[in-house]
Amino acid sequence: MHYFGLPHSDFFKYPSTSLGPPSAPFENALLAAVFDASMKVSMPLTIAIVYFSVVHFVNPLVIARQKKKAHLENEKLTETQLKRLAPAPFHIAKSPLFKLFVLLHNVFLCVYSVWTFVSMLQCFGKTVASMSLRYNSQSRLSNFVYAVCDVENGVFNQDFMTKNLTILGWWFYMSKFYEVIDTIIILLKGKPSSLLQSYHHAGAMMCMWSGIRYRAPPIWIFVVFNSFIHSLMYFYFSLCCIRVRVPVIAKRILTSLQICQFVFGGSLAVFHAFVWYYDTSSNSYNNCIHNAEQAMPLMINVAYLTPLTMLFAAFYIESYIKGGKK
């Protein structure tokens, strides 16, 4: 049983710093130690700042190489002219070993994304079934709401071991650090990293950290939607690596899906704040966003997605409507 109403009274309060992180869901000591370290805000924040700063300082060096290759070292070029400069790849980027690494990198992320997406669907399937028994409900919609909003017994429940949002979400959070290799590949190929690329990777680290650290119900959207889009995206990149000609319409559809992901996913995340469900254990209605700590990841994600959507929209217009170069 559920209804829609205004968010919890604690929604706009300042989060408490006394709330401890979730316990490590691993028996392996090394994984447990990494999990505990990753729950400290200093880890994603430091990596994101270092990553963004390094890209900021390396980009001018890459552009200088491009201008030198085009014999335009002393020319002041417009932003449009800079984007049209030919790549100036570093020597390592021309080696067969590097090209093989790039292919394996994209294949790995494609397979991993598919695994995450399928595993999350299985997690929801098992959790919704258990909610039917726990809440004695035959409504699939109600059981889905329970699975998402009941943090202790829903998709975050660690009783399912490898098939719960805590583990799947944490591995997805870890993958955001590995995806920095995308930017390294671009730079080594002699092209500067765009603001869209850098902002996308840095912000994703913080969003996933906050969602897993505070077990915010809407974080399932990030994991499910993003893993699905990444499955398609890295499959496309893998095809490009083996020189399979992909129609431009396919890339256009992929960019459109990414924008839809941000708009629909962000809206659905905010919608959680207005959902109330009946908790049989306490005989009372609970808001899906239980407290200020769970509200903070929601706000971080919305704040991150707003400019990201505009950057993707600008990329779409420049690439497909204005006929900009690939």
From TrEMBL:
Coiled coil: none annotated. It holds the Pfam family ELO. The keyword Transmembrane applies. Its EC number is 2.3.1.-. GO terms for cellular component: endoplasmic reticulum membrane. It catalyses: an acyl-CoA + malonyl-CoA + H(+) = a 3-oxoacyl-CoA + CO2 + CoA. Belongs to the ELO family. This is Elongation of fatty acids protein. It comes from Candidozyma auris (Yeast). The lineage of its organism: Eukaryota, Fungi, Dikarya, Ascomycota, Saccharomycotina.
